[in-house]
Amino acid sequence: MKMSRTVVLVGTLTISSAWVGGVAVSRAQAETTNTEAKPEAKKDRVDDRAAKTKDHIDDKTTVEKARLDDKAAVDKARVDDRAAAKKNEIDRQAGAQATAKDTSSKDKKDTAGDEVTDAWITAKVKASFVGDKALNHSDIHVDTDHKGILVLSGYVPNETVRAHAVSVARETKGVQRVEDKLEIKSTK
After folding, report:
1. pTM confidence score
2. If DSSP codes are grouped into helix, strand and coil, which group holds residue 172?
């Protein structure tokens, strides 16, 4: 039996040695694989971090751009509101001044304020007539009576031109009424 114990012992040692050697070889192979895989894994992690950082920066940029666009819109609205308020204030002041002039002119007929207004209406209607080709062969006199009453007199070639002249005069700002004293006279 001594021999068999020796054989068993040698066999056990041989198996143990092979097993230990196999473990060592397996470890060496695993380390080689890990060493080769580590740079790729590290590169992948770096790429992932870079992509996440880029996405984060893009998100922040988008949010900041939207914030700046909103701020610009608010600033523009404020400027527009201020301009509208200033215009309204100027209009209100002009209206108050016009009301003050109207009040003082009610007491006096044909004051300077009325003459300027009537003269302005007359000039505006005459200017409209000068640039109008339909009224080329007409001799129209324009006069504005007190408070925007416009009197048209003179000669026109036909009824169509007469109606056109009256229409242009009525459309002029400040004209309250048009008195048509135009006569038809053909020009040959």
Report:
1. 0.39
2. coil
Mean pLDDT by 10 residues, the chain (188 residues): 63 65 66 62 80 82 81 79 77 71 46 64 88 85 85 92 92 89 79
Residue-by-residue DSSP string for 115-167:
HHHHHHHHHHHHHHHHT-GGGTT-EEEEEEETTTEEEEEEEESSHHHHHHHHH
Tokens of 184: 């038809």
Contact yes or no for 179/151 (Cβ under 8 A): yes
Cα gap 128→117, rounded to integer Å: 17
Burial 141-165 (b: 16+ CB within 10 A, else e): ebebeeebebbbeebbbeeebbebb
**Which CATH fold would you assign to the domain 109-184?**
Histidine-containing Protein; Chain: A; (3.30.1340)
Tokens of 146: 């007190």
Extents of the domains making up the chain: 109-184
User: What distance in Å separates the CA atoms of residue 151 and residue 86, rounded to the nearest whole number?
Assistant: 38
